[in-house]
Structures are given as structure tokens and as C-alpha cells.
Design goal:
- By secondary structure, the protein is of the alpha/beta class.
- It folds into three domains: about 80 residues; about 110 residues, no CATH class; about 180 residues, Ribonuclease H-like superfamily/Ribonuclease H (Nucleotidyltransferase, domain 5, 2-Layer Sandwich).
- Helix content is about 35%, strand content about 5%.
- Strands 3-2-1-4-5 form a five-stranded mixed beta sheet, sandwiched between helices.
- A hairpin with a 5-residue loop joins strand 2 and strand 3.
- Helix 7 crosses helix 8.
- It starts with 19 loop residues before the first helix and ends with a helix.
Amino acid sequence: MPPTLYSQSAENPSGRYLSFAEREEIALQRAGGHGVCEIARKLGRASSTISRELRRNAATRSGGLDYRATTAQWHADRAARRPKPAKLAVNEALRAFVQDRLSGAVTAADGSMVAGPKVIWKGRRSGRRQHRRWAMAWSPEQIAQRLKIDFPEDETMRISHEAIYQALYVQGRGALRRELTACLRTGRALRMPRARTRGKGKAFVSSEIMISERPAEVASRAVPGHWEGDLILGLGSSAIGTLVERTTRFTILLHLPRLAGYGDDVRAKNGPALAGHGAEAVRDAITQTIITLPDQLRRSLTWDQGAEMAQHAKLRIDTGLQVYFCDPRSPWQRGTNENTNGLLRQYFPKGTDLSIHSAEDIEAVARALNKRPRKALGWTTPAEALERYLQ
């Protein structure tokens, strides 16, 4: 049964769709000889909306493309009826093509099947996932675009990648086998909610402390005392904190040892992170290090929106640093720190346990990095640049 909101007497469901009154106005304006752009301006709509309406819902029985409001409304109501048969459910050739590309096995040069590795999803942040299947693993978008190349003349062999995703995930539109979700690159058994992908940022970050509100002197690097910070992560949730001064490139490393009970005790709800890089541990490490510097070297700190900076307000009170946050998924806004983290991977490679390094080891690495000549400083070292400023 079609929803009642698509009946003739129902109100317009939302401003997204043209109402019958708007279609009457389009018909009157069209009969008066007005153009598409002029009609769109009068109705407050996009010109593409009016052009599409005139093309799709025109009355064609007379042999032309005359536009009448009643006929256009009838076409719109008929197109809005649900449910519709899925294209993959009625087109067997298209369904076979999509399924073969999603689940196609990998073969060797002689045609024999390749067993491949067994990929098992692990980790707290992976969510509900199926174990990844060894296959050709074409993505839905690759399949949708390849159809245009393999079948250039057959318009029935067309489908959007969104329709393939819905056939896999949406109940009632399952023209494809549900277990094929294991062939997707993400391996998700359930689709991620759209609201989660919009990147609203952390709750403790307000608009007043975003990077857009940072003073202009920070971007110019004319005045020292503005820092960028981050964590470099290692095996077993180990971490080392990094602070880099933007003007002199002087680097400070923060020792973040694991807390007692890590790996043995269950973490208490709302308690400190036993891995050693929770909000309290990072705040204390920054405070103990940064207060040893003169006041003119404690102007601001720019960080990403990680949970380790949830106590930035207390950090600002304890140290006098003005804390600013980058936009979500924008590491280039901390370019100096990202470059330094890449240099630090020479001493702390990825995939290694960073908790084995003592505070003395970390300090020695920072000393080595600060005594390395830098091209951006005219081949002087960060230590020399900082010393020259202090003098």
C-alpha cells in the first residue's frame, strides 16, 4: 500500500519535494513563456529542479512535452509509490555480475585456487565485523563503474554503488546474499549510521577554542612560544607524547608510563586509563614539563581532538597555555608536529612497544633531535635557535 502522505489530499511531506501548488505555478509560468531560470527564481528552487520536473513529468500523450500540473502530480505520485522491485532482484544478469565481482575467488596463473591469508578482525574500535574473506574484493563503486565499460551499449546493466550497499545491508532489499558483506573491504556486518560519519568532533571542544580562533601570530611563526602536540602510539596501547615549538622546532617528549594494574586488573568505569595516556596522565605530563619554561615560551598549544585532551581547561589554568583544537581529520593543521613525529619514528618504529623506553631514553632522543641541523632554520639546530631567542 502506498503511504498516505503520497495521496492527492495529503500535505507536502517536506520542502524537498514540489507541491501541487508549485506545479500549478510552473504550468502558469511555462504557458506565459517564461524560462527555466526565471521560474526557479520565483519559486525559490534550483533551476535543475525545474528543468528535471519539466522533462520527467510532462504530458506526452499529445505527442509533445506539454506541462500540466495535474498530469505532473499524477506522474510524481506514481513514482513515489513504495515498495518498488529492486533492480538486482529482477535483472538476473546484473545480479550475477555483481555477485561474481563481490565474491570472486583469487586464482593463480594456472587457474588453481589461491587459499590466501586468513584475516581476523581484532580491536576494541573495530565494531561488529565479519572475518574478512579472501576474494577479488571489488568494491561496489568499482563494480558500478566497470559496468559502463563492460556493457557500453546495454543500459539495463547499470546500477549505483548505493543500490549494491542497500542490497547487502537493508532487510527487504536483500537481492544479494547477506554473507557477501564479508567480501567488503571493511568487513562490517552492519552499516555504520550516517550520523557517526559526519565527524561532529568531541563534546569537550567548543567553537571558541578551535584553530580558526587562534591568533594570527601563531601562523606567521614570528613569535616563539606556540606549541603543537600529539601522541605517537605503539604496540599494546603504549604511547609517547610530543610537543614541538613552531618557530624553533624545539621538541619535548613526554614519558607516559603504564599505570599499576595494566593487563591484570579490569579498568574501573570512568577511571583513569591504565595504558598511561589518558586525559589525567597527559595533562600532568604536559604541566610538569611546560612549567619549567619561561612565561614567554608558554603562549598556546594546538592539539587534535583526541580524548587525551579532555582536561584542557585545567591544563590552561595550571600552565597558562591557551589550548586550541584542529578540525576533525585535519592533521595538516599541525604540520610541524606531524613532520617531527615522522622523524621520531627513526627512534620509535611503528609496531614496537614504546613502554620499554625509560624517561632517560626519551630525553636522550629529544636531545638528539634538538641538536640536529634543520633546513628550515638555516641549518642551525633547534637548541641553538631557542637559546638565541632566550638570550
